Structure to design on (221 residues):
C-alpha cells in the first residue's frame, strides 16, 4: 500500500448506528460507503473524516473580533470512548467551534464514541494533532486564551471571563493534564467540589465549564 493511501485512510473512521448515520447525512458529510446489515438493523457509515488541524485553527482565529469569540476544546489524553462521545455531544450543544485532541494516548473517533455522541461528530469539527504543546502555542499566537482545568487551581471556573476567545483544556481520566501541557496554559481553573472525591469525571467537567461559558456569553449579549 502506498504511503498516500495510508495517510488518506488514517483520516477516516467508520460510524455505526442509526442516529450517527442520519446526522452524517443531515450534515452533508462526504460519504464513501453505507452498509446495512440485514436482520441486525445496524447501519455503517464509512469515511467520516477528521478535520484538518491547520484549517480548524485558522477558522477559529477568523472569529476573533467578530463579536462571536471562538470557544474550543483541547483534550489531553482522554482514553474512554464514552467520555469522548459525551464531550462531543456537550460541545455541540454548547456551541463549541471545534475540538482538538492528541494522537497518542487518546481514543479516536470509534464506533462507541459515535454512539455516545449521538450524531455530534457530524457537527463539531474534531482534529488530531501530534503535539499538544505546540498547538497551545499556536492558539496563543492567534490571541486565544488557553484555560486549563485542574483540581488544585487557584481560580474557580466561574471567575474566568469566558466571553474572551478561549480554549478549554481538559486532562485525561485519572492523570489530568500532563505537566508540559499544564505549564503552557495561560491560566488554570478548578471546579469546586464539596464531597470527598476531589474531582469530577472529565465529561461532566466539560459540561460544567462549557455551560458556564455559554451562560456568560448569553448574559453579555
Amino acid at each position: 500500500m502506498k504511503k498516500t493511501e495510508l495517510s488518506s485512510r488514517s483520516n477516516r473512521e467508520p460510524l455505526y448506528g442509526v442516529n450517527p448515520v442520519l446526522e452524517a447525512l443531515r450534515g452533508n458529510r462526504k460519504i464513501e460507503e453505507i452498509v446495512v446489515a440485514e436482520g441486525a438493523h445496524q447501519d455503517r457509515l464509512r469515511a467520516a473524516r477528521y478535520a484538518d488541524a491547520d484549517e480548524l485553527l485558522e477558522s477559529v482565529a477568523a472569529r476573533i473580533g467578530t463579536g462571536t469569540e471562538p470557544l474550543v476544546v483541547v483534550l489531553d489524553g482522554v482514553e474512554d470512548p464514552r467520555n469522548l462521545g459525551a464531550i462531543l455531544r456537550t460541545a455541540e450543544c454548547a456551541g463549541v467551534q471545534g475540538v482538538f485532541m492528541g494522537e497518542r494516548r487518546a481514543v479516536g473517533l470509534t464506533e462507541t464514541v459515535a454512539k455516545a455522541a449521538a450524531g455530534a461528530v457530524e457537527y463539531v469539527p474534531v482534529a488530531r494533532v501530534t503535539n499538544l504543546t505546540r498547538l497551545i502555542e499556536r492558539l496563543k499566537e492567534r490571541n486565544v486564551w488557553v484555560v486549563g482545568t485542574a483540581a488544585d487551581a487557584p481560580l474557580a471556573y466561574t471567575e474566568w471571563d469566558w466571553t474572551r476567545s478561549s480554549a478549554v483544556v481538559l486532562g485525561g481520566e485519572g492523570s489530568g493534564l500532563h505537566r508540559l501541557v499544564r505549564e503552557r496554559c495561560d491560566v488554570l481553573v478548578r471546579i469546586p467540589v464539596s464531597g470527598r472525591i476531589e474531582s469530577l469525571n472529565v465529561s461532566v467537567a466539560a459540561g460544567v465549564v462549557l455551560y458556564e461559558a455559554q451562560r456568560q456569553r448569553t448574559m453579555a449579549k
Q: What stands out?
A: The first strand starts at residue 12 and ends at 16.
